[in-house]
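hey so u asked for the seq, here:
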Amino acid sequence: MITQKIPSMRSFFFLFLSLLATLHYGQEKTGIRWMTIQEAEQAVQREPRKVIIDVYTDWCGWCKKMDKNTFQHPALAAYVNAHFYAVKLDGEEKDSIRFRGKWYRFVAKGRRGYHELPARLMNGRMSYPTIVYLDEELEVIQPVPGYQDPRSFEEIITYIAGGEYKYQPLEQYKRNYQRQLVVPEG
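ran it, structure tokens below
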């Protein structure tokens, strides 16, 4: 009689953890390393760095397109990981968030409602996606609303990371910008 050995729950658990580790390692290797706003706040205290906050919603098609086309671009992801702490922040987050010693909450208003923290960071202009840039003291440098293709995103992140926002307007910077990360198509 042939008996078949049934794998134990322990074996399944080990296999599941191995799969998760592999997926996590692969994501960090090719994509932006996202963190929570609280993790970014702690990281800035340990090692000052600018912060990029992707304010999105689950229903936003342009947010999903930016996740796929822009944030997954290998050179852009590597640049963001080297120069910024990157945060994903749901504009309709239901949980309260503590940031810089203050609590921010969800506000039930209209069909969907909104969260107070993204509203504050975006100066009340609730538009998705919006990328909010913070300096090393966690002060808002600039919110940039709308979908950013890889080329536009490159211009903005190099403008912010290099501190050029202190000396010249973004449009002037773009006119003189020499592409470094995204190879032109064609």
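Strands lie at 34-35, 50-56, 84-90, 97-99, 102-104, 106-107, 114-115, 130-134, 140-145. The chain has one domain: 32-176.
lmk if thats what u needed
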